Amino acid sequence: MIGRAAEILRRGGLVAFPTETVYGLGANALDIDAVERVYAAKGRPAYNPLIVHVADEGAARSLVSEWPEHASRVARAFWPGPVTIVLRKRDLIPAVVTAGLDAVALRVPAHPIALALLRAAGIPLAAPSANRSTELSPTTAQHVERSLGARVDLILDGGPTQVGIESTVLDLRGPRPSILRPGIIGARELEPLVGPLAAPNATRHEIPRPSPGMLDRHYAPRARLALFDASEAERIFAETRVLMARGVRVGMLLVHLDDPGGLEIVRMPSDAVGYAQRLYATLHSLDEAGCDVIFVERVPNGPEWLAARDRLERASTPN
Ligand code: AMP
Ligand code: MG
Q1: CA-214 nearest atom, ligand 1
Q2: Are 167 and 237 found together in one domain?
Q3: Same-domain check for residues 61 and 174
Q4: CATH number for position 124
């Protein structure tokens, strides 16, 4: 299967494959037509660049025009793993991959199937999440099938993903690194390697955006998603009963709040890593169950919850 997948990729086709974060939709990153097929299959806007996946640090180095010392430290500590680094690109990376930016985002994924595929194909793979643009990222091969179906030439099934949300994106250009997209590896793990980070999301509302993954609405279920905190719980529970009586399907994700009884609640893990792992999978299953509204208890404020908070806020941003 890996051999066939590698052959499809070398010929310019699209292969969805598991990584430890979410499933990716891979194409030869050096083939303009193949990369354009990725944008078309996803309905992804041309201004949102793709992460390039490589087999090892050496392959990453060959795609960039500079490789600062701290890039090696990050690579040694976290690759293969859920950290993507952004560096100035070489000309061999086509502009379509980076949405015209002169930087490229690179990562070595920690999944045996992804690594086997990268090695067998022998090419860097541009691979965004394997879902239609703005939808929830897929954490199973079935999610990919439902979202992309015949738009992809082959789906490699590696079961449910471990991390469950997208990688941390770390910008290593310039003297002051910054996190462009939070993930399960946070500032606490990265700062010892790269020095103090620029304030997170300081640039979020600037145009042009430094990293288009900061598009406000992203990673969203079909259902309307609304966040609430403990002080609003009684009102939300009452509202839910009214909605249910009217035939509205309401899902509810709770972390710490007690089960009020009579509602369709999902108890989420109370640790940030466990929560991230379950988040998309849970939202996918509520979508599949036909939920119209999903109420989500706000997660705690600690730094380890930053990535989950980020994804929930984007998912609840109105269209
Ligand atoms: P995904 O949607 O998981 O494919 O992740 C792609 C995200 O990675 C983008 O939306 C950006 O946040 C980030 N990214 C990819 N390429 C670049 C780049 N060249 N410069 C800055 N950020 C990038
Ligand atoms: Mg995505």
Answers
A1: 12
A2: no
A3: yes
A4: 3.90.870.10
Q: Is the Cβ atom of 48 under 6 angstroms away from ligand 1?
A: yes
pLDDT class for 203, splitting at 50, 70, 90?
very low
Establish whether residue 103 lines the binding site of ligand 1, counting it when its CB lies within 6 angstroms of any ligand atom: yes
Token look-up 């060959």 returns 62
User: Does some domain include residue 211?
Assistant: no
Around ion ligand 2, residues with a beta carbon closer than 5 Å are 129
Which among 53, 181, 215 is the best mutation to test ligand 1's pocket, defined by most ligand atoms within 8 Å of the CB? 181
Q: Does residue 72 sit in the same domain as residue 15?
A: yes
Tokens matching residue 109? 């994924």
pLDDT digits (tens, 9 = 90+) for 5-59: 999 999 999 999 999 999 999 999 999 999 999 999 999 999 999 999 999 999 9
Q: Tokens 């994700």 belong to which residue? A: 253
163 and 232, same domain (yes or no): no
pLDDT at 201: 54
Same domain, 186 and 238: no
Atom 17 (ligand 1) nearest CA: 105
Ligand 1 contacts CB of residue 152 (under 6 A): no
Domain identity same for 182 and 54 = yes
State how many domains the chain has. Answer: 2
Helix ranges (DSSP H) in 84-229: 112-121, 141-148, 187-194
Which numbered atom of ligand 1 lies nearest the CA of 104?
A: 19
| Per-residue b or e along 84-109, where b marks 16 or more CB atoms closer than 10 Å to that residue's CB | bbbbebeeebbebbbeebebbbbbbb
- Ligand 1 within 6 A of CB of 98: yes
- Kindly state the tokens that stand for 63: 């795609």
Q: What is the pTM of this model?
A: 0.93
**Structural domain range at position 165:** 2-194
Q: Are residues 180 and 303 in the same domain?
A: no
pLDDT in tens, 161-180: 999 999 999 999 988 999 99
Asked, for residue 135, whether it belongs to a domain, the answer is yes
CA 56 to chain centre: 20
